[in-house]
Amino acid sequence: MNHFDPANEIQDLQYFGEFGGVNPSISDSSTYTFLSAKTMLDTFEGNTDGCYLYSRHTSPTNLYLSQALAKMENTESANVTASGMGAITSVLMQICKSDDHIISSRTIYGGTYAFLKNFLPSFKIDTTFVDINNFDWIEKSIQPNTKVIYCETVSNPLLEVADLRKLSEICKKHNLKLIVDNTFSPMSISPTLLGADVVIHSLTKFINGSSDTVGGVYCATKEFVDASKSVNDGACMLLGPTMDSFRSSSVLKNLRTLHIRMKQHSYNAMYLAERFENDGLKVSYPGLPSHPNHEIMKGMMNAEYGYGGLITVDAGTTEKANELMELMQQENLGYLAVSLGFYKTLFSCSGSSTSSEIPEEERIAMGISDGLIRFSIGLDQDIERTYQKMKECMLKTGVLNHETMYI
Ligand code: PLP
Questions:
Q1: Which of 21, 133, 177, 346 has the most CB within a 10 Å radius?
Q2: Is 69 touching ligand 1 by the criterion CB < 6 Å?
Q3: Ligand 1 pocket, residue 202 CB under 6 Å
Q4: C-beta of 83 in contact with ligand 1 (< 6 A)
Q5: Measured from the CA of 183, which atom of ligand 1 is nearest?
C-alpha cells in the first residue's frame, strides 16, 4: 500500500556536502556575495530563486532543515525559527492584522495563551477561547473578522485531541485558516492530510530530542512561507527569530532518528499509562480507551508511531505532586524539569509551571488540577523496571496506596 509516511519522506531526501560529505555543509556566513550588483537588487525584490542575501532571510543550512520538515509535514515549504514561539508569533502576525479575530482552543501551551490573551490585544487582535471539540461553540464564535482557528493537535498539558477533519470543514465553510501546533505528535499525526493550512512545531521538544536547544518551524504553502520572509512586510523577516546555522545543522541530524524515538516514547508511555490506570491512578493518555478523545486520535494517526510520549497523572494536591516528583528525581527516574521529548523522563506540575500564565479560575475550568503532573516519558530500555520503581515512589508518597489499588 502506498500511504504517506513522514519518515519515508525524510529518508528520500538526498544531501551532498561541499566535498561530497554525507551531511550538508554548514554555511557559516551571515551575508553572501553577488557577482553583479543587478542580481543583488533582483534578490531584494524577491526575483532570484537560489540566491542568498542575508541569513535572517534565508541560509542554505536553514533551507536544508526547512525542506526536511516540509517533507515530514507534507507541505510545499517551511521556515525554521529560533524557537517555537518565534514560529507561532510570526505565523499569527503574518495572517492577522489590526481588527482581526482569532478562535483558539483554550487548552494550549501557556506561552501561546499569554501571547493571544495579553500581547495581541494591544495590536487590536482579539481571541475567543473555546473548547476545541465543541463545534457549536466554535461556529457561534465566528465573526465577520475571524481569520484563524488555532489549536494543538494534542494539547499541552491536558492531552485533548483536536478533531482536525471537523475543524478543517468549519474553516473551509467560513474561509478561515486552520493553524495547528503539532509539537506533541510529530510523525504520529500529519495535520495537512486532515486539512490543516499551517503546521507549527517547537523543535525544542521531540524533533530535536536532546534538550540542548530551542527551535521552531512553520510548514505551509510556498506562497505563505515566501510572504512571511518578504523584506518589505514579512512577519518572520521583520520580527527576526532566525535560527543559527550550526543549530539547524544539528537539529537536522537529530531529525533522522525521530521515527525510531517516537515509537519508543509511545511504547513506553502506553506501557506506563496502562499499568497506572490498572493501579487505580487518575491517568490520562490518548492511547487509553478511557481517554475521551481516544477514537478521534485513532482515526487520525499514522498508527505505527503510536499515541505519543506524554501522559498526565493527577497526584491529588500540589504538595503530593511535588513530593512524588522530588522522590522520583532522587531515584533517578527522570528530571523535575519542564519541556519534553528528552531521552530521560521529564516531569513537572503544569499548574505551577508551563500553564502558570493561565489564571487559576480558567485553569480549573479547563481541568488543569493543582496536582496534575505532566510526564514526558523517556526512551527507557526496560520500562517494566521503570514502572516498578515509579510505583514504589507512588506508594511511599501516598499518591498510590495499597487499599485503593485495584490489583
Ligand atoms: N508549543 C507547545 C505545544 C509547547 O509545549 C511549547 C513550549 O513548551 C511551545 C509551543 C513553545 O516552544 P519554544 O519553547 O520552543 O518557544
A1: 346
A2: no
A3: yes
A4: yes
A5: 3
Distance 104 CA to ligand 1 centre (A): 16
Q: Is the CB of 199 under 6 A from ligand 1?
A: no
> Which residue has the CA at smallest separation from atom 5 of ligand 1?
109
Task: Tell me which residue has cell 529518508.
Answer: 11
| pLDDT values of the chain reduced to their tens digit, one per residue, 407 residues | 458 999 999 999 998 998 999 999 999 999 999 888 888 888 877 766 778 889 999 899 999 999 999 999 999 999 999 999 999 999 999 999 999 999 999 999 999 999 999 999 999 999 999 999 999 999 999 999 999 999 999 998 889 999 999 999 999 999 999 999 999 999 999 999 999 999 999 999 999 999 999 999 999 999 999 999 999 999 999 999 999 999 999 999 999 999 999 999 999 999 999 999 999 999 999 999 999 999 999 999 999 999 999 999 999 999 999 999 999 999 999 999 999 999 999 999 987 776 677 788 888 777 888 899 999 999 999 999 999 999 999 999 999 987 666 54
Please answer whether residues 158 and 107 qualify as being in contact, where contact means their C-beta atoms are separated by less than 8 angstroms: yes
By most ligand atoms within 8 Å of CB, the mutation choice from 205, 218, 239 for ligand 1 is 205
Nearest-atom number in ligand 1 for the CA of 108 is 3
The domains found in the chain, sorted by start residue, are 6-255 (3.40.640.10), 258-397 (3.90.1150.10)
User: Which residue's CA is minimally distant from atom 12 of ligand 1?
Assistant: 84
- DSSP line for 31-90: B---SSHHHHHHHHTT--TT---BTTT--HHHHHHHHHHHHHTT-SEEEEESSHHHHHHH
Q: Cα–Cα distance between 322 and 301 in angstroms, integer?
A: 34
Nearest CA, atom 14, ligand 1: 84
Report the alpha-carbon distance of residue 397 to residue 407 in Å, rounded. 19
